[in-house]
Amino acid sequence: MTTSARLIFDVIGPPTLARFNGRCQHPMAEQEKLLRALLRENADTEFGRRHGFASIETFSRFQKQVPITEYDDIAPYVEASRHGQPAQLTRARPVFYGMTSGTTGPAKYIPVTEASRHAKSRLMRLWLSGVLRDHPAVADGVILQPASPEVEEYAPDGTPCGAEAGHAYRNMPAAIRGMYPVPYEVCEIPDYRARYYAMLRVAVMHEVKVIGTPNPSTILLIARELEAMTEPLVRDVRDGTLDASVRIPPEIRRALERHIHPDPGRAAFLERAATAGGGRLIPRHVWPDMSMLACWRGGSVRQYLDQLAPHYPDGLAMRDLGWLASECRGSVPLSDEDDSGPLAIATNVYEFFPADVDRKPQPTDLLAVDQLEVGGQYLVYVTTAGGLCRYAMHDILAVTGYHGRTPAVRFVQKEKGIVSFTGEKLTEVQVLAAIDETLDQRRTDRNFIAAVGQPPTADADPYYLFLVEYETPPSDEAAFSAARALDKALCRHNIEYASKRKSGRLAPPVLRVLEPGQFDAYQRGALEAGAHDGQFKILRLTADHTFADHFSRSVRDYRAA
User: Fold this and answer.
1) Cα 440 to Cα 417: distance, rounded to the nearest angstrom
2) Is the pTM of this model over 0.85?
3) In this structure, what are the phi and psi dihedrals at residue 210, rounded to the nearest 5 degrees?
4) What's residue 87's pLDDT?
5) Which residues contact 429 (CB under 8 A, 6 or more apart)?
6) Which residues partner with 411 through β-bridges?
7) Which terminus of the chain has a lower count of CB atoms within 10 Å, N or C?
8) Domain spans of the chain?
9) 3 state DSSP class of 47
10) CA–CA separation, 255 vs 273, rounded Å?
């Protein structure tokens, strides 16, 4: 960390945490204060005038007067804004449009204003303050954070559109910037393998204390790419070069060359690290004093956490990045204990609807933060400084407890992570629980990719196909046993699934044992096609039966019977 960054966090860290803790004692007062400010700021906009923002004085009036919105509802305002028409959703002109990764549909354009960008920046500063309070050694090294290109296209009025994470990386405050040694230009390298080479070429010169990226599959990918690039990385560190065979655009290559120099001492260290790794550079040997990993720990990504263990130092701390998306950053984990964190109570306005209620909510049905129950699971709706208003995130959050009087939440799954052919309403969470229970003894030796719903045909009832990679494929007996155990576990976790299986309306599930390496190839292909590095994700339960076609090299299918 640079001296200026260390001084800033020594000075601002404790009061930043203290202010947040104080606000968490009065969540509804903070929510109402923020709501009034946002309504007042954006009363004289197309959306604000249409819904009478100027006349709204109370939270209850807000709920009666302003509708719940989906992206399709705000898309006309967004498009008008992208074509240069002022004051659509916000009085302030958007400075950027974040393009979502499209897990649940086509890409959307999320307006980013100076105010919403600063709001996310303040929450990042709060998160870092908590990290440095608990892990002061982070200050003695740097943070490695992959990011996608900021600009993928321009709106008709010239406003850039692209990866919100790339926008934040490029525009982070100068003092904090010193904590991130990889220059932004690396993010703009078009070729995926070249981008990872350039990132690691810079990173291996430094004492990396934290690797931070939302999806832990990216942290696993970093380890595998580091191992694959051992020889050119050691050579280039020794010689102060960039591998000439790597496809880096000339202008970016010239910018990178300003950050590198011959370092025979570091190269000798890397050679010893490679020897310790059996001829490969493994993160645990390259950065033995790493302090922590920062990534999502819950939801559909948690299966990767055990796969990280062979690559990274023993006992490495792990801190969740919290519930965040292109639309907003909603929670701030302040400990390493679990994957939950208190709601960012002074940054966004939150409303909720019980996830187990099988109907669409009416505007006055939504609950405020003081109406939630610990253990409850809720769909969440946000009102933000970027102009989103009562916006349906289609995320399910679980309330795990309280920080002061403010609910602490963790991400459970996307609302659309549910498949039902016969009324079973199988959820992603239930699938992951069944996988963990039945394949637990081989968690570091297998990679569960997805459960793919197979629709009924004229000749067969619907069933679920489980795609699993093994480093060492199981015996036929073990695979059939695992398929049967999966079926029983799903019956335990979902009584409707059990009923439909008993009645024969659902056929037994199938375990497809895949040849290893296919998920890595799928992920690499997605990144090469332009998927965002840090937020690459797939649904672990899908009704898109064609998804299985991406994983065609199978050892065998095993049907539970």
Assistant:
1) 22
2) no
3) -140, 135
4) 98
5) 412, 413, 417
6) 397
7) C
8) 18-93+342-414, 116-319, 418-559
9) helix
10) 28
